[in-house]
Design a protein that fits this description.
isomerase, PPIase_PpiC, Peptidylprolyl isomerase, four-stranded antiparallel sheet, 276 residues, 3 domains, 14% strand, Chitinase A, domain 3, isomerase activity, elongated, PPIase_dom_sf, alpha+beta, two-stranded antiparallel ribbon
Length: 276
């Protein structure tokens, strides 16, 4: 059992500041001044601001009563709660209110509804902006310290005398030596600029002349180019990115003490949504 604290901060009057913030469920542990100090000292202002804004938003997004009820039932069933009379004990054990259960069970669907209403029409533009970073490649690579060695290894590969899978474990200085010289699928944005420029304009199977990248000489062959597709998963990702940027703007305003734009116009879009 958790014992009460006897070292709470003192106010100017010399009285101990009351503990009002619960850490153990149902037991106030921190004074408000301690909470404010810890939030700033431990860098928790941003995640707390984000959590508050999400909570505000989720509470404002409506769902039909039958959908909410079904989501709550499914949420509880996944946790082994199948009867109504089990719910109060489950909530009490976690120090949760019924409204907490309602939000925990439905917040994902509430946010999805808002995100699709607000940002679905911007997905194509976002995808085109991000496509160069979303395209992926598979390539084979050797990194060596010596230009002459790079030229010799390139010659062996070009003439069919050897290949990357046999040369990389012996000669390559990078981590590709542990995967037989092959890297990917990997985003084009993740590579060194000298690699990216060649891979972006290359064709599958093309072996590039040795070139210098940083302190290494590189032998490179493009194996596969995997262009990003605007499928359902990518649509969800683009909408999620747009939502995160919008939310981050609100976090910044809150942390700067600036007024938050009202949610009325955003929430009004939900009234036009025919299928929540």
């Amino acid at each position: 059992m958790t014992t009460p604290r006897d070292t709470l901060p003192e106010t100017l009057s010399g009285l101990h500041e009351p503990a009002v913030v619960e850490l153990p469920p149902g037991r106030p542990w921190l004074a408000l001044s301690e909470l404010n100090r810890l939030i700033r000292q431990q860098g928790q202002a941003r995640p707390l601001a984000r959590a508050w804004l999400l909570d505000q938003l989720v509470h404002a997004i409506p769902l039909p009563a039958d959908q909410e009820k079904a989501l709550m039932a499914a949420f509880l069933e996944r946790r082994g709660i199948t009867a109504d009379d089990q719910v109060p004990a489950w909530l009490a054990e976690r120090n949760l209110a019924f409204d907490d259960l309602r939000i925990l069970a439905t917040q994902k669907q509430r946010l999805q509804r808002l995100v699709r209403c607000r940002w679905a029409d911007e997905v194509e533009v976002r995808f085109l902006q991000r496509k160069p970073e979303l395209d992926q490649v598979v390539y084979s690579l050797l990194r060596v310290d010596d230009e002459d060695l790079a030229a010799e290894l390139h010659h062996q590969i070009a003439e069919g005398e050897a290949d990357f899978d046999s040369l990389a474990p012996i000669h390559s200085a990078g981590p590709e030596r542990h995967c037989r010289g092959q890297i990917g699928p990997l985003s084009l944005a993740a590579g060194h600029e000298s690699l990216v420029s060649r891979l972006r304009r290359g064709r599958p199977g093309q072996l590039f002349e040795p070139f210098q990248a940083g302190d290494s000489w590189v032998v490179l062959r493009l194996e596969q180019f995997l262009p990003a597709e605007l499928n359902e998963a990518t649509r969800e990702r683009m909408m999620g990115e747009l939502f995160d940027e919008w939310l981050e703007q609100r976090v910044r305003l809150l942390l700067e003490g600036q007024p938050l734009p009202p949610l009325d116009a955003l929430l009004a879009l939900l009234q036009e949504d025919p299928a929540p």
